[in-house]
User: Which sequence fits this backbone?
């Protein structure tokens, strides 16, 4: 792949060929022929579907197409395979909090790669893993913390659910609607060794109870009393992907109190919100809540895949056993990812990104205010560098996303209702880039 030579991640967009350009079209067609449809959203659910034959030949004008392929990224900039330069208002699903390819992260990975690229998972640890575990314990928003590493956000959620079950001795789980916690299914059920399977054999679907997000504490209390098998409550402190929505004031605290009274393990999923996104290291701490477990991932690895559950020692002690690890993965606490995570945490601290998210985000919110009266806009909400523009239809949200792309801004439309345009840029986004984004939004929202 040729290099596009992004010398800084602080540039404004430049669109040379309206996306999808010719290289994007050709590659999307090849990808469609090689990948399973579900994972290839370029060919699957995007409006590009139908625009390409399986050989990549254009069969009709891709009206409404939003497809493009990323070739290079640095800071808040992304360059596509056709040489167009964008500002990334997604931070790559919330991962690039310190920006894409931060030099400190790249050099930490490079240095680690000179020493140890892959280790032996749970059996033999390595120094970067030790250092990261200590660092995460120091940051954890709960007393006497211990870390359980994971390879992805969903893996961290699995660990939290298993921990809750082990510690409480009750298989039931309370979750909320809407919520997004991942998409894993059932490798454990197909695994044969009883030591791994028990006591996780009871299928979660049978014991999962759901309430509307933000349901009053009395309803939570009532369901916990009616369903005494519930041992774990899993909650996002801010709904991320499914709605970009905040709970009613005081709700998390009330939820924590009800869980505490019923001895239900409170697992807060900060995979999207953790490490500064909303102007706080962890939203739960800001809300005055000390959970039993906190899931984190995404921003932690600075672009490399790593996640973790931080939990109170007394709760994590439920994992104690003399045998092999009961939850593990080949790539757990991968050396490159641990090194990247340590560098990422350094950058968040030294560049004061948590405070920056708040101050820059407040200013961005003010710049969005004029949009609230525009046709089709039903709500604008946000905190730090997580914002949502809620539209009155999925079609309007997707049109907005596409129009922004043509102005060089990557922002995803979706959520459970399909009506939310989410804005979650790198925390290092420059004031100039954010001003450009706000001005473009003022141009295209309500068009
Ligand atoms: C709140 C939350 N939990 C869990 C996940 C799943 O993480 P992963 O995609 O790394 O498995 C996500 C991903 O978007 C998320 O936002």
Assistant:
């Amino acid at each position: 792949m040729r290099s596009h030579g992004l010398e800084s991640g602080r540039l404004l967009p430049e669109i040379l060929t309206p996306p999808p350009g010719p290289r994007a079209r050709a590659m999307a067609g090849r990808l469609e022929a090689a990948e399973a449809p579900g994972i290839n959203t370029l060919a699957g659910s995007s409006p590009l579907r139908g625009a390409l034959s399986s050989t990549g030949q254009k069969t009709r004008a891709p009206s409404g197409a939003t497809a493009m392929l990323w070739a290079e990224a640095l800071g808040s900039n992304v360059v596509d395979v056709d040489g167009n330069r964008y500002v990334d208002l997604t931070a790559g699903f919330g991962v690039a909090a310190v920006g894409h390819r931060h030099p400190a992260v790249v050099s930490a990975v490079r240095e680690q790669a000179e020493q140890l690229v892959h280790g032996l998972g749970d059996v033999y640890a390595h120094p970067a893993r030790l250092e990261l575990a200590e660092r995460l314990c120091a940051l954890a928003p709960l007393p006497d913390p211990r870390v359980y590493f994971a390879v992805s956000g969903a893996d961290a959620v699995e660990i939290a659910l298993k921990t809750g079950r082990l510690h409480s001795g009750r298989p039931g789980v309370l979750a909320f609607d809407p919520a997004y916690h991942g998409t894993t299914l059932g490798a454990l059920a197909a695994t044969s060794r009883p030591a791994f399977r028990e006591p996780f054999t009871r299928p979660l679907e049978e014991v999962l109870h759901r309430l509307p997000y933000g349901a009053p504490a009395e309803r939570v209390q009532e369901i916990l009393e009616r369903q005494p098998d519930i041992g774990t409550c899993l909650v996002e402190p801010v709904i991320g992907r499914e709605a970009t929505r905040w709970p009613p004031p005081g709700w998390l605290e009330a939820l924590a109190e009800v869980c505490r009274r019923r001895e239900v393990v409170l697992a807060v999923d900060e995979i999207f919100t953790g490490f500064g996104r909303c102007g706080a290291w962890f939203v739960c701490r800001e809300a005055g809540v000390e959970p039993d477990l906190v899931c984190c991932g995404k921003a932690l690895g600075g672009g490399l895949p790593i996640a973790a559950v931080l939990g109170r020692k007394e709760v994590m002690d439920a994992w104690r056993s003399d045998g092999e690890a009961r939850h593990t993965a080949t790539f757990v606490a991968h050396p490159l990812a641990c090194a990247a995570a340590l560098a990422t945490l350094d950058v968040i601290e030294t560049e004061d990104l948590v405070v920056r998210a708040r101050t820059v985000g407040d200013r961005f919110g003010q710049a969005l205010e004029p949009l609230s009266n525009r046709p089709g806009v039903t709500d604008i909400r946000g905190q730090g560098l997580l914002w949502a523009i809620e539209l009155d239809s999925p079609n309007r949200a997707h049109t907005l996303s596409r129009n922004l792309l043509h102005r060089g801004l990557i922002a995803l439309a979706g959520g459970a209702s399909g009506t939310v345009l989410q804005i979650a840029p790198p925390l290092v986004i420059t004031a100039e880039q954010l001003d450009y984004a706000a001005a473009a939004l003022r141009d295209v929202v309500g068009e």
Remarks:
- The domain at 22-58+70-101+352-444 is CATH 3.90.1150.10 (Aspartate Aminotransferase, domain 1).
- The mean pLDDT is 92.
- The longest helix spans residues 153-168.
